[in-house]
Design a protein that fits this description.
single chain; alpha+beta; SH3 type barrels; 7-stranded antiparallel β-sheet; 2 helices; 16% helix; globular
């Protein structure tokens, strides 16, 4: 297992992080039912937040879960999966291993709309 601080080895200091990008992120160690291992995660925070902090908020993705109102479907690398908005986490940027791709504009809009619904009163 890699030690904390080693995760950023694939990134360079100049790598910009943008909302809607999918990054492979190291999520371990975890506790209880938190989603585990290294997996693709979509960047949720806007750059106005993560450009000035050493952290970024992400939503992990999976192919091994059931649909639910707070899970957005997507097709990624030939597989049908889900964005797990109920498992959002704020990570140190050192956990971001490498950029994989960017979700479509439609997927990002639907994801952000679902988040708005989740946090409305």
């Amino acid at each position: 297992m890699r030690r904390s601080g080693a995760y950023a080895g694939d990134r360079t200091a100049g790598d910009a992080i943008r909302r809607g990008e999918i990054w492979l992120a190291a999520l371990d160690p975890t506790i209880g039912v938190e989603i585990q291992k290294s997996r693709p995660c979509i960047i949720i925070w806007p750059p106005e937040m993560h450009d000035f902090l050493r952290t970024v908020t992400v939503a992990p993705m999976t192919t091994g879960s059931r649909p639910a109102p707070y899970r957005r479907p997507l097709r990624f690398r030939g597989k049908d999966g889900l964005i797990l908005l109920g498992q959002m986490r704020t990570l140190n940027k050192q956990r971001l291993m490498r950029r994989l791709e960017t979700v479509s504009g439609a997927t990002l809009r639907l994801t952000l709309a679902t988040l708005r619904e989740m946090f409305e009163e």
